[in-house]
User: Which sequence fits this backbone?
């Protein structure tokens, strides 16, 4: 009998690239779980989140971070959230069930998305070429989250600092998305 192990492949596989004042990092050690709030259960779920994460749920278009598992809650639409946190196991829903119980509906999205962290002095210049959102720090502030499209690819973007963003794109189009970002960066250099 053959004895072999399957090894996971990252969506893109570039780890890190630096272009003068722009740095790209493929985040592969994060879990992504979608969370829906059951009907008439918002208060119970929010209490569990506060008790375990010491935060309240963000309003739509915002994100909040918590120390537990370096978690970030993204409010995407009414009663729909993404939770991004440090990957500890291949069973992120079970990890959330330990802290949040059965108060919400959870679905593992980790293998469905690629995550690119983009940062540096010229990040805004690179993104504004392909992003229709006003990225002014007065409009799209730190912690904001938005669904948009870049080069006809659906993207979820989160502003981490003035010059740092997390970009989530569907895994199926992650190579095309990566190419669009690289092309935009090369065009500003």
Assistant:
């Amino acid at each position: 009998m053959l004895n072999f192990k399957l090894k996971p492949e990252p969506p893109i596989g570039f780890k890190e690239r630096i272009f003068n004042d722009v740095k790209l990092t493929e985040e592969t050690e994060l879990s992504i779980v979608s969370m829906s709030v059951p009907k008439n259960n918002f208060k119970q779920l929010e209490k569990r989140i506060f008790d375990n994460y010491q935060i309240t749920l963000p309003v739509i278009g915002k994100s909040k971070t918590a120390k537990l598992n370096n978690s970030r809650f993204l409010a995407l639409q009414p009663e729909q959230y993404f939770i991004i946190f440090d990957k500890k196991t291949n069973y992120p829903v079970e990890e959330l069930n330990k802290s949040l119980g059965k108060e919400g509906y959870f679905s593992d999205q980790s293998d469905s998305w690629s995550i690119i962290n983009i940062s540096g002095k010229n990040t805004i210049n690179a993104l504004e070429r392909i992003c229709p959102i006003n990225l002014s720090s007065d409009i799209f502030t730190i912690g904001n989250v938005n669904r948009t499209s870049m080069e006809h690819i659906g993207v979820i973007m989160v502003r981490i600092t003035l010059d740092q963003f997390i970009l989530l794109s569907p895994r199926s189009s992650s190579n095309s998305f990566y190419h669009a970002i690289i092309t935009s960066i090369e065009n500003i250099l």
